[in-house]
Amino acid sequence: MESLTANKVNDILDKLDKAGVEYLQFDAYNEEDYSDKYQSEYIDLFEEIVVNKIFKHFGIDPEKKEIIVNYFAKENGKWFVSFYEPEVDTNIDKILNNDYSDLEELK
Fold it and tell me: Quick check: bond before 86 cis, omega within 30?
C-alpha cells in the first residue's frame, strides 16, 4: 500500500511539474485567482498525503475542523504541504518516507 501511495503521489507531482504548476490550492494554482483546472490533483494529493498518511499517523479525524491545509507548493525543487492551522509545513518526500518530525504540532 505504501508504494502505491508513493507512486500515485509522484505521478501527480510529475504531472504538475510538467504543466509548470508550483502552487496548488483547492480552487487556484500558480497566479490564477480561481481555477478548477487542477482540482482533482489537489483532491488526490489531499487524500493520499493528508488523510491517508498524516491524519492516519496522528489518529486525527479528517472531519476535525481545527486542522486546516492551506496549499501544496514547490520550493527549491521539492514539493511540500502547508497547513494554516497550525502554521506548519513539511516536505512531501518526508511524509512518503514516514518522517512526521515537522508535524509534531498536529498531535
Answer: yes
Residue 70's identity, in one-letter code, is N
Angstrom distances, CA of residue 71 to CA of 1, 2, 4, 98, 107: 25, 23, 23, 20, 20
Share of the chain above pLDDT 70, in %: 96
Spacing of C-alpha 95 from chain mean position: 9
- How far apart are the C-alpha atoms of 40 and 89, rounded to whole Å? 22
Give tens-digit pLDDT for 76-102. Answer: 999 999 999 899 999 999 999 999 999
The Cα–Cα gap between 51 and 48 comes to: 6
Overall pTM > 0.90: yes
Q: Is the dihedral of CA 56, 61, 63, 64 positive or negative?
A: negative
The secondary structure of residue 101, as a DSSP letter, is G
- Under a CB-based contact definition with an 8 Å cutoff, are residues 41 and 27 in contact? no
